[in-house]
Automatic annotation (TrEMBL):
Top-level lineage group: Bacteria
Keyword Metal-binding among UniProt keywords: no
GO cellular component: plasma membrane
TM region(s), chain numbering: 12-33, 45-68, 99-118
InterPro entries: Pra-immunoreactive, RDD
Protein source organism: Caenimonas sedimenti
Keyword Glycoprotein: no
Protein name: RDD family protein
Keywords: Cell membrane, Membrane, Transmembrane, Transmembrane helix
Pfam families: RDD
Domain RDD residues, every copy: 7-131
Membrane disposition: Multi-pass membrane protein
Length: 155
């Protein structure tokens, strides 16, 4: 990556995860009520559960990564997921690998996510599997003494 981008660290990505989790709940909870009504304990692993709670979020997340390079949480932070080698958007195949890598990152007590805090490119195991990085542009302060944009009010 060039000097105009920086890697997004653990806590910012954790905040993005929280935002994304709320979005997923806003999507899946109404669907669960539509399918099961007010039932407090639906049949475990019913087809509706699998489709609503596993397949639908996976399809939505992968589609967002491919179309926009980010989920709503990462969009809120101005972050995007790109190919670590080229800086190009993720291909659908890499997006699927990255998503499946989440499961490998979760299994050993979420060590694959904690890895983000210690990696020089802030990659979790899922990022390493898909050869992806999460980046955002470096904010540069305006140069003092520069002229305002055309049409901007002068002070």
């Amino acid at each position: 990556m060039d000097a105009s981008t920086r890697y997004v660290g653990f806590w910012a990505r954790f905040l993005a995860f929280v935002i994304d989790s709320v979005c997923v709940l806003l999507l899946t909870v109404p669907l669960m009520f539509a399918v099961y009504g007010q039932a407090t304990s639906p049949t475990p692993f019913a087809l509706g559960d699998i489709l609503i709670n596993i397949v639908l979020p996976a399809v939505v997340v992968i589609a967002l990564w491919v179309a926009f390079g980010a989920t709503p949480g990462k969009m809120a932070l101005g972050a995007t997921i790109v190919d670590a080698g080229t800086g190009a958007p993720l291909t659908p195949a890499k997006a699927v690998v990255r998503y499946l890598g989440y499961f490998l990152s979760i299994i050993p007590l979420c060590a694959g996510f904690a890895w983000i805090a210690f990696d020089k490119r802030k990659q979790g195991w899922h990022d390493k599997l898909a050869n992806s990085v999460v980046v955002r542009p470096v904010r540069t302060p305006p140069v003092s003494g520069s002229s305002p944009a055309p049409g901007a009010p002068r002070s």
